[in-house]
């Protein structure tokens, strides 16, 4: 039970870890083991999810001079690291956040035209996969060296996407599905229950509020559009991803949506409403 106390020092050793719930604590574990290791240690993982983000962590650690051997799947060998002043002078170019950008790009696909700068593509960030989904659904995607533009298609088509490794895309993809002709399927529902909300329940509630229909068969969500809404009142479930998805849903249709507890957006994107106002949305914060 909370609170609990942890006392060091950390002494890394060979361990096996179930990585089924999140990549975040595995990333933290790799960094802690890398800092404290005095001899090579092996981290064995099973049921790995959010695979791209482990790859991103390993690349970042190597950038800072750590030595890791990864077999590309379930085993990482972490070597002792020599700490010195050179680490202080390392420069890092931080990429734009694809998880936040995905919401704005979907807004462009369903409601007009959106151009974003500051993104790196291709990227090791898993949520950069939104680009392929948009292309597959028929949105016009233009990639320039310093800008990515997504333009609405007059006829978006249904898509199939496996979201086990990119669950943060699930809410905005559900909105894209509502504007696509046919039935879209998104797998990876089992990854949603332990997010900021029970995100499977939250997504279902949003889809129904927008006039769509949804069924879950096993680990796959089947979403049918189109949006049929005039005035919608939804709850954010204190989940920043749900706030973005709900707001983006208005981009493709002229209706008003009220989002309770919209301040949840501050977790990752405090300027979100300011930015969608630039896209023509009329925002009133109360």
Question: What is the gist of this entry?
Answer:
With 286 residues, the protein is α/β, with parallel strands linked by helices. 29% of the residues lie in helices and 21% in strands. Helix 3 packs parallel to helix 7.
Share in helix? 25-40%
The description of the largest β-sheet is: 4 strands, mixed
Order of helices and strands: EHEHEEHEHEEEHEHEEEHEH
Mean pLDDT: 92
* The CATH top-level class label of the largest domain: Alpha Beta
Helical region count? 8
Question: Explain this structure to me?
Answer:
With 286 residues, this protein is an alpha/beta fold. The chain contains eight helices and 13 strands. It has helices at residues 24-36, 51-63, 98-111, 130-137, 170-178, 199-209, 240-248, 272-278; strands at 15-18, 41-46, 68-70, 75-78, 113-116, 140-144, 147-151, 160-162, 183-187, 213-217, 220-224, 231-235, 256-260. The strands form four sheets. It has a four-stranded mixed beta sheet, covered by helices on one side. Strand 3 (68-70) and strand 4 (75-78) form a beta hairpin. The longest helix is centred in the middle third of the chain and has 14 residues, at 98-111.
Provide keyphrases for this structure.
29% helix; alpha/beta; 13 strands; globular; 286 residues; UDP-n-acetylglucosamine1-carboxyvinyl-transferase, Chain; 21% strand; four-stranded mixed beta sheet; Hypothetical Protein Ta0175, Chain: A, domain 2
């Amino acid at each position: 039970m909370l609170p609990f106390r942890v006392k060091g020092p950390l002494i890394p050793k060979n361990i096996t870890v179930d990585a089924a719930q999140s990549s975040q604590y595995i990333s933290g574990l790799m960094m802690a083991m890398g800092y404290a290791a005095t001899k090579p240690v092996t981290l064995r993982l099973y049921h790995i999810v959010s695979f791209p983000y482990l790859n991103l962590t390993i690349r970042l650690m190597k950038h800072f001079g750590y030595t890791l051997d990864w077999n590309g799947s379930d085993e990482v060998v972490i070597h002792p690291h020599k700490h010195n002043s050179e680490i202080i002078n390392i420069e890092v170019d931080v990429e734009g956040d694809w998880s936040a950008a995905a919401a704005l790009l979907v807004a462009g696909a369903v409601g007009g035209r959106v151009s974003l700068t500051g993104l790196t593509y291709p990227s090791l960030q898993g949520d950069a996969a939104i680009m392929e989904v948009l292309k597959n659904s028929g949105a016009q995607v233009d990639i320039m060296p310093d800008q990515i533009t997504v333009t609405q298609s007059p006829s978006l088509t249904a898509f199939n996407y496996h979201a086990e490794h990119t669950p943060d895309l699930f809410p905005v993809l559900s909105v894209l599905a509502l504007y696509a002709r046919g039935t879209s399927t998104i797998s990876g529902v089992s990854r949603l229950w332990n997010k900021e909300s029970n995100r499977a329940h939250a997504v279902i509630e949003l889809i129904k509020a927008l006039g769509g229909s949804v069924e879950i068969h096993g680990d796959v969500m089947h979403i049918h559009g189109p949006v049929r809404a005039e005035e919608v009142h939804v709850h954010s479930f204190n989940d920043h991803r749900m706030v973005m998805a709900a707001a983006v849903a208005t981009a493709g249709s002229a209706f008003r949506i009220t989002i309770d507890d919209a301040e949840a957006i501050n977790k990752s994107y405090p300027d979100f409403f300011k930015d969608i106002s630039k896209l023509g949305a009329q925002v009133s914060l109360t």
